[in-house]
Amino acid sequence: MLRFLVEKEFKQMMRNGFLPRLIIMFPLISLLVFPLAADFEIKGIHLVAVDNDHSAYSRRLVDKVVSSGWFTLTKVEGAYDDAIRLVELGKADIILELPPHFERDLVREGTAAVMISADTVNGTKGGLGSAYLSGIIADFANEIRGELITGTQDPAVPTYAIIPRYRYNPHLKYPISMVPALMVMVLSMLAGFLPALNIVAEKESGTIEQMNVTPVRKFDFILSKLIPYWCAGFISLSICFIVARVFYGLLPAGNLATIYVFATVFVLAMSGFGLVISNYASSMQQAMFMMFFFVITFILMSGLYTPIAGMPGWAQMLSNFSPLKYFIRVMRLVYLKGSGFSDLSASFAALSGFAVFFNTWAVISYRKSA
Amino acid sequence: MNQLPVFVRKEFHHILRDPWTMMMLLALPILMLVLFGFAITTEVKNAHIAIYDPSNDEATRAISARLGVSEYFSVVAELRTPEEIDSIFRYGDVSMVVVFSDGFYGNLVRTGDAQVLLVADGTDPNTASTLVNYATVIIASYQQELTPLGAVPFRIHSEVKLLYNPHMTGAYNFVPGVMGMVLMLICAMMTSISIAREKEKGTMEILLVSPMKPIIIILAKSIPYFVLSVVNLATILIMSVFLLHVPIAGSLPALVVVSLVFIFVSLALGLLISSAVETQVVALLISGMALMMPVILLSGMMFPVENMPQPLQWLSRILPASWYITAVRKIMIKGLGLVSVLKELSVLVGMALALIVVSLKRFRIRLE
Amino acid sequence: MSVITAENLTKRFGHFVAVDSVSFQVGPGEIFGFLGANGAGKTTAMRMLCGLSKPSGGKGTVAGFDIERKPEKVKASIGYMSQKFALYEDLTVRENIRLYAGIYGVPGKLIGPRTDALLRRLGFQKEKDTFVKALPLGWKQKLAFSVAIFHDPKVVFLDEPTGGVDPAARRQFWELIYEAAHGGITVFVTTHYMDEAEYCDRVSIMVDGKIEALDSPQNLKARFGSESMDQVFRQLARKAMREVD
Q1: Which of A72, A75, C159, C165 is deepest in the core (most CB within 10 A)?
Q2: What is the ipTM score, two decimals?
């Protein structure tokens, strides 16, 4: 009996037209476009220099700031108000204001002051921008000191080198982190959304009633709906692997088979979840909205874009209820750090738990008679 | 024109009789705000770090203390051997290990080749570079303190003013984005689905054949979602101000005007989608995936547009949401007035008009 | 030996009593018409007999199985055709037949030959690989019926099977029903077309959830002094309290 049902499901899936294309295009586009866009790195901060001194030193300082590479000079304005206008319009991110008599104060009094105004709507950008700028200014002061106090080269100022090293991703390539996580997102959208839509579609067209009147067992019915989506999930995942290899040169440090095993359990869990929703929804709109609600929450809370460690305690606890959290962690660990199966047994247990829970719920809540 | 109120009432009935969807529609902005306001952040606080300090002298201890005290870091482990660095990355929960060179203080004052190595977990580059940057700033500032103030001539003092968002809360950046996303989602998705449903059930043809003018049908379909969006807008603003403490720095009327225009644009977009599809499923998938994904990615809601390659930046400019979010940031966060968002406003008005004209034309064609 | 029995079958939705203590029996090979206006409770009663809905009171058996305690056994012994002729539009004629045949346990080897025989009888051989959505309404209806009896059930339940179909097609459809009944299948059919009542062996008329009349069409016409079932119905329906939707 199951055989006939599965046959029917596959035929319907292939004939849909939109679906097969989605299964292939969605991973492709996600993996190719997403990493290009999802870049939090702070680069090219737009600086406006308001030079009220017009001295050799002030010009040198501005040059030094620009040559650091962190900043691009937008304009050298005459007055602070014009500079602020640029920030308001979004054309500049940070203002460096040098007062009149900057050079004179520095040489004669030994101290001078400058003003940094940073746009902190994007807090990280503003914070880091002002930190870099302060650092460059301090450096400039050291240079001047070195020139004016002859014969010495920063003697009294002890220095040490601060050197960054990036494990697992030495050149700090952004896609490397995104791609494994994106694979999870693609998989969860496909395995989460599509099964839900499927059952609700049958509800709306009435074919589900025809099914309910037959001796088909609930278990078989649900299983026949899941199997095609598992296959779709695997195809999508494999496409993801190929794209990762071809476009990003990304090869898993760990075992690909491990990923497939986890993917199986994950897809089981997500499609089970989708089925539960479709059992309770009576229209497409409802089903889609419920799915969207939950999937968006799962995705945002799972550490895909922002680290779970950065979330407050209650949010971290909530994230434990997201199957995505475990799978993303596994993906990153296996792909990037080469962890083995034993490192991941806790995650495996969690994902299996989800799969069992959701699918049992789906079978129980499917009502053949009202 | 008596037809319009009757039809609008029917539409409201459809919506109100589907309590689940209604709940979702009203709960969605609340959910988004809570998530983005409290849970999602690119800011780093209390990141777990470990320290490997073979020197254990006054300089290294001072630096470690400063790191530990900083709100950005939380020192969870002090490593004894270099081998532990590897294992703590794999099994532990640290994002960075600070490694001091041997005989730090001695080298520092004598030979000048002391080193601090910041080994960060590169699997999350955003966090890694943020952590490295913050740590660098803290460690470098210690360097300045090593020399007493008077002994070093020629200092430049930088006074730093943080504009608009002095506490650098992530919410300031995200709230405008959430507004854009929620309004677009509700208006575009719901309108397109509602019309597609009538098409599917065949009731659309009945309407088109009736004496009701197409414009009335369209208006009637849009009005309930317009009302819902206004309710959502109010909810979001109230929550932002009182729950997330993101004040409306600029003028509220200006904000409302811009939002209303954006709602029109989104409704028109929903209409356009529904005029192109035959079934609800496709309407859902298009407005859900084809619309939401680009909005979340490219509108500047989460990821800065200026970082993106040129083609994506152009795409961003096509999205109405990008213009809206920029305008909201200017008014709400930067405290500017209507005048400064004239460019965004005119683009949005233009988009609204263009979309409405195209949708109307398509509907009229169907009638013929 | 009755194939269908209903004893004080009742269905309540909150305070609303949709089916009010109905009782009847249907014998093998009988064509039993379940008539009534829309909203009278026919579909609800039928759904209980099919195992789609649990009775609020009373008992029933179909093909010897208790509808409340053994609904799955009931389902395995019956065929069903709904108002929507719910076949899968994106599957072909042959694929739909194959699916339901398999579900009802028709042995694999028999499916092919039986399908061919059926298609020949209906005159559908050329359409065997056509998608159902491309078929005209009357054909879908015939196909749905054929699929419902493909596995030789003891009873077939038909819920408003001729809705929206032209009178000529309806007559053809009833010929299929006769054939099935001749072959020993009991046919339980609900309809609001009173002229179709004439085709049945016995008819029951439901008004406001109760059976107001139960007999053969001839006897009913004699009893009410009417020339047509339509007139019989009108006389009974005047008593009706429920608004027609």
Answers
A1: C159
A2: 0.75
